[in-house]
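pasting F-box and leucine rich repeat protein 5 for the record, 113 residues
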Amino acid sequence: MAPFPEEVDVFTAPHWRMKQLVGLYCDKLSKTNFSNNNDFRALLQSLYATFKEFKMHEQIENEYIIGLLQQRSQTIYNVHSDNKLSEMLSLFEKGLKNVKWKWKPLGMLRETV
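structre below
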């Protein structure tokens, strides 16, 4: 089996940026003079730009990252569902039924397994 490719960290940098923006606004809110129209307008414009960035971040996650995670999850699920254990057990059971036992009857063998 080929080794898995090294994981690409698609979460740290984008989510660090989102945390950075939230922290930035905690600071801006405390420093904004809401009585001053220019200060208030600047805050609103800045918030608008930031929320557009948040929306773009979510779109990228939804279009690319979530799809890759779903694909990976499906691959992992298929690895576990695509094993042939049930088929092999059935073949062993058929084989055991057809074998003539010299020492133990088949019923006794099943009890020990």
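The chain has four helices and no strands.
The two ends are 31 Å apart (CA to CA).
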